[in-house]
Amino acid sequence: RRVAILVSGGGSNMVALVKSMTGDHPARPVLVLANSADAGGLVRARELGVEADHVDHRPFKGDRPAFEDALHARLLQAEPDILCLAGFMRVLTEGFVSRWQGRMLNIHPSLLPKYRGLHTHARALEAGETEHGCTVHEVTPELDEGPILGQARVPVLPGDTPDLLAARVLEQEHRLYPAVLRRFAAGDRSRIDLAA
Ligand code: GRF
Asked: Which HAMAP family match (predicted)?
């Protein structure tokens, strides 16, 4: 299976995914694609020997479908079977999702269905949660809504700040996403739950 990974920032999840796709793993990374030229993940992808490119979203300001057409066209060149959104910070419309649905995964830093959207760690702390975590799900047109393929949980500790909690969750993201991708690439969509 051919996997393309979409990133916006440093790409630590992308690195974990790329490093997991070795040996008898059913998938290989064929492209890392960012929405800006200065995404740190592009440098890290090239260091790992993976083709990396970007489609800048800014020239398409206000015309989201046009940006998504450019993104789609670039992806088709790599002929991926699976898309992994990994710290990809652009909302994708129904138009794009419908062309990849069933073959597109995302990782979200909360225990969905709790805390869809942004600033999940601060919101969990404000709500007094004693547990938090991350979720890998299939991408559907509804933001952070699709079928859950895996979750990993972490404790919220006394004195936690959003940054401390985010770091604890990120560690689990790097375990969960590769575990889910390995199964998904082998055709297994059964849900997994990792304890910290
Ligand atoms: C992190 O906040 C992570 O929780 C979320 O996207 C952000 C960047 O991740 N998935 P990455 O280091 O670019 O993979």
From this structure: PurN
